């Protein structure tokens, strides 16, 4: 694939094992439609989308694909198909389901370059494209599948029983993937391994990459394995209409939602009221603790991940607590490294920056932070694609603030609030014998809880961080904050990041329920079994 036009194609719906075309369509657009708008050209493109034929629209270099839009009736058909397939999937031996995922791993490798190309055309920087692909591939490696098999089915031998602990699937799982990181929606599709049937809604913002992965990788592999029709169903529809349908349908057992904390926590309550399970991947405000003996070059590089995709990734670091002994040096390193980051076309450059969707919220947060006592270390201006100041620019310079003292940081919106723009706050606490206690307490009181990281060499500090910190679904030590690690889920969180039942989250576990089985291996009268021999 050498151009956007080479990738343009029409994607159907997929319901009950059938590919379904509709007249109403959504269009996947290249990020270049934003980077290179030009008033006349942008107006012409909008007119073409409204009035042009399918052939004319697909011929436009900024149009990557079209996707059939589903009606509410087709949404009901998808749910009915999933409900019919769920019992057959549950009866499929686990070994067969795992074998299907092994083939998925090979298929993703075969299509890796095409998927990466489409993600970049949609605006995802190259470094985050590779991070998403690695996360998907890691969960499909043989060792990960062996762990999945162990988690789904375990057996133990007792004196007079064979004990089985097995996970039973929820049934029908409806997935609403993240609009800014579509491959994490494919990780959610691993609920199929537990024996669930899936209905997934393709968001318009990432229609191309997600549709391609579903129709060119996932669906063909499952079809080749003879998976029951209805095991996977793909829709593209209005979010609110679809969510109401999922909540109201008696066919739906679980709603798997990626998005804002405010909506997700309300969704959890609505699910509980209807007897459904909610699996939530919500907002984040990840913290990083940099101790006095940290490897500052590596710590700086990890903190720079705050600006990948211009901070529009929920699992990126958002604030750092830095030991006062190294705060000045780390701030200087961060300022130099952040100021060197430049905008660019994600398809033709190695930029880590993306156009910022919430520029107004960024400016409001920055102004409030400065009024609350934060000091600007670097950045803060809107810039154009060329990196030059532009009050209407689509990019924002990576911005670093310094906030001295936990008391001031506690009240600063740039520290405690969820941020979806390129803003990193460096909190420098006062020194003292109880400094580590205060640092861990500050991390623990974060209302969000996706990931937390530590940079330290002191074994005592590492031990206390990893054993005492309760906040967060994932803890990282002396490592990239964003990078995936073998065997670890990479998803899930506590507090407002994961809801009431938030935790480090393996999709196959969260979309299944533990069932215990006891099979007597010796013949004992039930009364003796209940009360003990000789009762």
TrEMBL record:
It holds the Pfam family Aldedh. This is Aldehyde dehydrogenase. Residues 59-501 form the Aldehyde dehydrogenase domain. The keyword Oxidoreductase applies. Keywords: Oxidoreductase. InterPro entries: Ald_DH/histidinol_DH, Ald_DH_C, Ald_DH_CS_CYS, Ald_DH_N, Aldehyde_DH_dom, Aldehyde_DH_Superfamily. The keyword Oxidoreductase applies.
């Amino acid at each position: 694939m050498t151009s956007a036009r080479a990738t343009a194609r029409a994607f159907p719906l997929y319901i009950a094992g059938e590919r379904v075309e509709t007249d109403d369509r959504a269009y996947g657009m290249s990020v270049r439609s934003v980077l290179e708008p030009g008033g006349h050209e942008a107006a012409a493109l909008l007119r073409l989308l409204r009035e042009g034929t399918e052939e004319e629209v697909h011929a436009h270099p900024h149009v990557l694909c079209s996707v059939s839009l589903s009606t509410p009736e087709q949404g009901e058909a998808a749910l009915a198909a999933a409900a019919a397939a769920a019992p057959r999937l549950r009866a499929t031996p686990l070994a067969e389901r795992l074998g299907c995922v092994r083939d998925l791993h090979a298929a993703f490798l075969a299509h890796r370059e095409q998927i990466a190309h489409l993600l970049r055309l949609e605006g995802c920087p190259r470094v985050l494209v590779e991070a998403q692909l690695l996360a998907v591939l890691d969960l499909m490696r043989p060792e990960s599948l062996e762990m999945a098999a162990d988690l789904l089915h375990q057996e133990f031998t007792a004196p007079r029983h064979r004990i089985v602990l097995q996970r039973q699937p929820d049934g029908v799982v409806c997935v609403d993937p993240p609009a800014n990181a579509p491959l994490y929606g494919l990780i959610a599709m691993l609920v199929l391994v537990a024996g669930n049937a899936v209905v997934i809604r393709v968001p318009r913002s990432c229609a191309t990459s997600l549709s391609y992965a579903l129709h060119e990788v996932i669906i063909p592999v499952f079809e080749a394995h003879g998976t029951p029709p209805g095991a996977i169903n793909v829709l593209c529809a209005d979010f609110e209409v679809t969510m109401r349908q999922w909540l109201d349908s008696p066919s739906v057992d679980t709603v798997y939602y990626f998005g804002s904390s405010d909506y997700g926590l309300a969704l959890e309550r609505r699910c509980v009221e209807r007897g459904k399970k909610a699996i939530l991947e919500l907002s984040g405000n990840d913290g990083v603790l940099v101790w006095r003996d940290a490897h500052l070059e590596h710590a700086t590089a990890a903190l720079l991940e705050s600006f990948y995709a211009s901070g529009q990734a929920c699992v990126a670091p958002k604030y750092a607590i830095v030991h006062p002994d190294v705060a000045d040096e780390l701030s200087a390193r961060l300022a130099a490294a952040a100021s060197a980051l430049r905008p660019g076309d994600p398809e033709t450059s190695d930029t880590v920056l993306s156009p910022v969707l919430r520029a107004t919220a960024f400016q409001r947060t920055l102004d409030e932070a400065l009024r609350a006592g934060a000091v600007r270390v670097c950045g803060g201006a809107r810039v154009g694609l060329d990196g030059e100041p532009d009050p209407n620019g689509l990019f924002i310079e990576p911005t670093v603030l310094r906030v001295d003292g936990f008391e001031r940081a506690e009240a600063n919106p740039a520290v405690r609030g969820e941020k979806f723009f390129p803003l990193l706050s460096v909190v420098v606490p006062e020194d003292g014998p109880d400094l580590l206690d205060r640092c861990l307490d500050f991390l623990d009181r974060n209302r969000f809880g996706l990931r937390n990281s530590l940079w330290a060499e002191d074994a005592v500090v590492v031990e206390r961080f990893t054993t005492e910190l309760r906040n967060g679904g994932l803890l990282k030590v002396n490592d990239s904050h964003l990078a995936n690690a073998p065997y670890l889920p990479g998803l899930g969180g506590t507090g407002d990041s994961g809801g009431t039942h938030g935790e480090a989250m393996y999709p196959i576990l969260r979309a299944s329920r533990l069932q215990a089985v006891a099979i007597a291996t010796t013949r004992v009268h039930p009364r003796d079994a209940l009360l003990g021999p000789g009762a």
